[in-house]
User: Fold this.
Amino acid sequence: MPTVSYVAFDGTETIVTGFAGDSVMETAVRNGVPGIVAECGGSLSCATCHVFLCADSAGLFPPKLDLEDDMLDGTAIDREDNSRLSCQLKLTDDVSVHVQTPETQV
Amino acid sequence: MGDTTAAPRLGTLIIGNCQAGVQLASTLRELGDTDPITLVGEEPHAPYQRPPLSKAFLKGEATADSLAFRTHDFYREHSIDLVPRERIFRIIRNADGGVATAESGRTFAFARLALTTGAVPRTIPFEGSELEGVSYLRTATEATVLEQQLREARNVVVVGGGFIGLEVAAGARAAGKNVTVLEAAPRLVGRAVSEQTSEFYLQAHRRRGIRVVLNAQVVRFVGEHDRVTGVELGPRDGDGSGEIVAADVVLIGVGVVPRTELAVQLGIEVENGIVVDARALASDGLTVAAGDCANMPNPSIGDFGVGRIRLESVQNAVEQAKVAAATLLGLPAEHRTVPWFWSDQADLKLQIAGLSGGHDRVVLRGEPDSEKFSVLYYRDGRLIAADCINSPLDFMAVKNALHRGLSVPADVATDTTVPLKKLFVAVETADAGRAVAAPVAVDLAPPAVPVPAGSPAA
Ligand SMILES: Cc1cc2nc3c(=O)[nH]c(=O)nc-3n(C[C@H](O)[C@H](O)[C@H](O)COP(=O)(O)OP(=O)(O)OC[C@H]3O[C@@H](n4cnc5c(N)ncnc54)[C@H](O)[C@@H]3O)c2cc1C
Ligand code: FES
Assistant:
């Protein structure tokens, strides 16, 4: 099964086992992982599921599409090169994903 | 009755286990509340998201399970007692707590009470409303039936040209159905957007092959063998009379009414929802209410006297529930934020930031026929809201500008070659200082604000 490690701004790490097909956002929200708000529930409308994808996990996901790229321009904490919207990161079998969550989402 | 040696410790009872209720329970725990929390609701499912019901769900891309907000483990680990299938119909309370009774006879004693009872679709008592194939859309149960009916349907009629109706219409049309939208008003989504945005949706949906009838007067639903077969229209100017629009499925989406019956019973003030203050506190000074059921002071930064408002949106349910949770724990928090909303209609993404009520000027940024543009709303020369169609950059820019108390001068906002966020300026109106200094919405989102010492949770 896939696992996701979420490292919060203050350094606390939460590791959650997820399901293939679920997104990094869904996995966080369903398990109450702090740091991801996801008001729009994954419909690419809110940009409150912003994460920084760690280098070791970059190759696990397809590159972002234009809409995600545009939404990233308005995140509460400014985007970095490794910024993604976690609702667009779908887990596949047995991957282990590492992300950092920003200080705030709104 | 069994042996009761010690009286159980009473905690918070939250009635209504959807968007606002789940958020309220989660925030209570984030803020350090260790008392029992009971989250009770009448629906059979674990709490789930509603917005996809009129979108992905009808395409078969989601199920009630996949829309769940939290895992069962989450509720267990956070000691949130989730109680589905119980409809509360009576509450007796005093200043120290009380007891709520469900129709099953089960009782729930509480020390603190939150009402997150949401809203129900407004019904219209047309002749033929009981025919099979005529439905409303609020719950996953209703969406499941509608999804099956739509799969087999050829002719779909949507009564009401609001967001939910148009989302369903657009989805059905994309799936190749004959779709007719019947709107009683002279324009679409009249309650929520400007004439420019209404006109855009009219043209865009017509371009996609949806028949939209404005000023439509539904007379009754007609059927055969208890199944709906059509919708009879009244006479319209220059359009004959008594037309029957063929229909295998009729969705009625004519707005919702807040569920206030429990509040009324408690003697709490109710007017278009449960009247609450900026702390989500009802008129009894004890009960909190949040989400679609609550009528609150306008939360916009720079409130231009739009007064009270009841907002039907995820963002509002979430923010207000956080405030309500803080209030229950005696922590300071105030609902004051930039409201926002979205609607996905087939390939048309609408994102609204701010509240346009009270605007005195409308500026178009971009060309509506290109299906990528924004409508900016101004008041006293200051940006107060925007409807952004397929323009997430504009949306994010406006949302951020409003959050920071900034504006974009109307005369330069039309220049689509410059990103909006490069055009932000400080507001030069009399209340600019107040707007920037105003208490911005409590951000109780994780990482949560530390619970101040001396609070009940500390
Ligand atoms: C089809 C659809 C699409 C939507 N799309 C969007 C969108 O794109 N964007 C957006 O921002 N918003 C959208 N919304 C609106 C959004 O879903 C609501 O604003 C939000 O659900 C409000 O949450 P709530 O918790 O206040 O109320 P509700 O979701 O209505 O929850 C209230 C719950 O309380 C229960 N309840 C009420 N009374 C009792 C009682 N006496 N006893 C027990 N249980 C009770 C109800 O059964 C219900 O489950 C949509 C809504 C629908 C229906
Ligand atoms: S959850 Fe809203 S954009 Fe990802």
Remarks:
- The CA atoms of residues 20 and 92 of chain A lie 4 Å apart.
- The two ends of chain A are 31 Å apart (CA to CA).
- The pocket of FE2/S2 (inorganic) cluster (ligand 2) is lined by residues A 25, 38, 40, 42, 44-49, 71, 85, 87 (CB under 6 Å).
- Chain A has two helices and five strands.
